[in-house]
Amino acid sequence: MNNKRLLVINGANLNLTGTREKEVYGSTSLQEIEAELVRLGKKHDVEVACFQNNIEGEIINALHEARGKFDGVIINAGAWSHYSYAIRDAIVASEIKTIEVHISNIFAREEFRRTSVLSPVCVGSIVGFGAKSYYLALRYFLEGYNV
């Protein structure tokens, strides 16, 4: 996947990763995760752009603006994963292969977190591996699966 571009999108409250509920989300900050994704991308001649916002509409705008500019999306929409049909529709409208990630194992948490409305429109979901969930998603794109 040379000379490709990936967009990493993080939703609400993920800017507090590394300081918020460390027992659930770990101590690695979002900035550290993003820096490692950019570093790994460069190592494989892939540009990785990162975006985080606490406003749902901005996530939707980012997906719309990604059309035709990015070859893949890695998204952790946070709580919006469980109920945002608007983000789901934006993923579909973007026409970009998207992988959903979650730092925690959403299936081992509260009942409302166990369903994702985004999963059915994503290539796949990677959950429960902490910061490594992002790196596993990046690896999928680096190895060229279905891109």
Name some characteristics of this structure.
single chain, alpha/beta, Rossmann fold, 5-stranded parallel beta sheet, 5 strands, globular
Structure characterization notes:
This protein is an alpha/beta fold. The protein has one domain: Rossmann fold (3-Layer(aba) Sandwich), CATH 3.40.50.9100. It contains 5 helices and 5 strands, in the order βααβαβαββα. α4 (85-94) links the parallel β3 (72-76) and β4 (98-102). α2 (30-43) packs parallel to α5 and α3 (56-66) packs parallel to α4. The radius of gyration is 14 Å and the shape is globular. The N and C termini lie close together (8 Å). 38% of the residues are buried.
Record the SSE blueprint.
Elements: E1 4-10, H1 22-25, H2 30-43, E2 46-52, H3 56-66, E3 72-76, H4 85-94, E4 98-102, E5 124-127, H5 132-142
Parallel strand pairs: 1-2, 1-3, 3-4, 4-5
Strand order of the largest sheet: 2-1-3-4-5
Total strands: 5
Oligomer: single chain
CATH class: Alpha Beta
How many helices does DSSP assign? 5
Average pLDDT rating: 90
Number of domains: 1
Query: What is the fourth-level CATH superfamily?
Result: Dehydroquinase, class II
**How large is the radius of gyration?**
14 Å
- Distance between the ends: 8 Å
Quickly describe the structure.
With 147 residues, the protein is an alpha/beta fold.
